[in-house]
Amino acid sequence: MRKFTKRRIAVFLLSFFLAYLINFQSHAFLSSEDPKNIFDLLNSSPNILVASVEFIKQADKNERYFIYQLKNIYPIKNSQQENIQVLQEQIFPGQKTKLKVQDSVLIFYTELPKFETYKEAQKDGIQYRVYGGDAGLVQLTDWSLSELVYWMNALLPLYQDNHRTIQQFHNPELKLFLASLNVPNKKIQDDAAQKLLQKKMTQGALSSTEINSILQNLRNSKLSSSAQTNLIQVLGRNSSKEELANIAHSSAGIQKWQAIRELEKLGVSWKLAKLIEDFNQTKGEEKLQALKIIIQYKKDEASSFLTKLLESPAEDNIKIEAIDKMVEFLNTDYEDILLQQLTTKNLNLKTYTMVALGKAKSKRALPILIKLLEDPNHRIKATARLALELSQDTKAKAILKERYERVGEGHVH
Fold first, then answer.
1. Can you name the CATH fold of 340-413?
2. If pLDDT is split at 50, 70 and 90, which confidence band does 94 have?
């Protein structure tokens, strides 16, 4: 009875929280339709300002927004007031602002509409809101005001004059995005690389000047990992096989593995033996990158490697990644390997594999999972039940219904 009461209390509290969260999120957010890429914000934001944060009013329990008191440092677009108050929406309950007093920030903002939700804020004289959500606030921690002003002054004319021509480049925006990769700000680097990838999807081949600029940016040790990935994808979309091969052979980390993936898409296969050698010699994230590519080969050599890997003293996170990827590219050989894991003494791997095979709806795993319902280990027994429910198998559903409804242990989906 006591256990039943605790369960009811837990269900009630969870239901209460979910109802609160759903009610909170049911309100439309003004920023939900705003652009999030900084270059789109540059193009569409009515006001842009470099400011210092003078004061922050955190959201009260009944409010859905923060208020920033800002001091104008440098007006970029339609921002002449010396001091300005700007509202930012609170996207989820309990969210705290990422800004601190005295932070310098590049802010995009627009007029606050006269909605009932913001009536109290408007009574207090708030006229503006952050445009673009969190993307509309760029903290300036890694670069100086002079660098920011130089960059902004270079960008805005390109957006305001669509007919301006730039020598050696097909499109002025390409030069804009490539130049922005040098800005020491992760958000700007990521967004610039993202826009480059979008442009490549809609235009023809890159010029040699543009390719060289991309390669030069890839040699920048301060370039964000996301930007590196997107730039190599640009080369892949451009079918730049020679450049990708050079990166794959001479680089390390994200660039190497993304280049190999792009070459695979272009029909240039990497030797599996070399990938396995690289896996054995690398550490951390690079191991995971190599593993993902190895598993996609689905060859006997890959199956042999994976069998040995799961039997080795390698870290569980590597083995779990292998299990996930084998399920994603499931074939008979990989299913054999996963079924073997149902007899391992490593409890974490055993239960993880049980759930993975259930999700994969493996028919061959069903008899083993049904047998594991009788296992003396409570965790294995509970995981077997979950895996069988995930399998959505008719026979498994009937067995679970008969077993658990008989003993009164709950509903079977």
1. Leucine-rich Repeat Variant (1.25.10)
2. low
